[in-house]
Write a structure and sequence with these properties.
Strand content: 15-25%
Strand order of the largest sheet: 4-3-2-1-5
Shape: globular
Distance between the termini: 32 Å
Number of strands: 5
Structural class: alpha/beta
């Protein structure tokens, strides 16, 4: 049975390498602001952005030599906290093809894998679509 894509005010498509620029930080901050203003937000991770929700990332980033005693949350932790804080209004999806192609197949349980052919359904369900990253 086909899964219906819930309606969203904004669909953000993250493309390309997540650590090449500030794209991920910008996407997370924009998502947070939109959600706090009452919007429904979906994120579609494509390309290497599918690595952001890998279970193997753990709860925190590796320690920073300049601030050894400070722990910083991993992207998995930040995304999970946002999913818990905004249930039913924030959804994160990962492209199955891109995940498989990069060996990024063990996502956190909250992130469903979607076939690239389903992307059009996500665009149709969103009021606005933003593309962040490589095009």
């Amino acid at each position: 049975m086909a899964t219906k894509v819930p309606a969203a005010d904004v669909l953000m498509t993250l493309m390309g390498s997540p650590y090449e620029s500030d794209i991920v930080t910008s996407a997370l901050r924009l998502s947070q602001s939109l959600l706090e203003s009452g919007a429904k937000v979906h994120v579609w991770a494509c390309g290497y952005a599918t690595m952001l929700t890998q279970q193997g990332l753990g709860d925190s980033k590796p320690r920073n030599l300049a601030a050894w005693s400070t722990e910083y949350p991993s992207t998995v932790t930040v995304i999970q906290e946002m999913l818990r804080a905004f249930p039913g209004r924030f959804h994160w999806y990962a492209c199955r093809f891109c995940s498989d192609d990069r060996g990024a197949v063990v996502h956190i349980p909250e992130v469903p894998l979607r076939a690239p052919t389903k992307f059009a359904e996500h665009v149709a369900a969103a009021g606005k679509t933003l593309y962040l990253g490589v095009m």
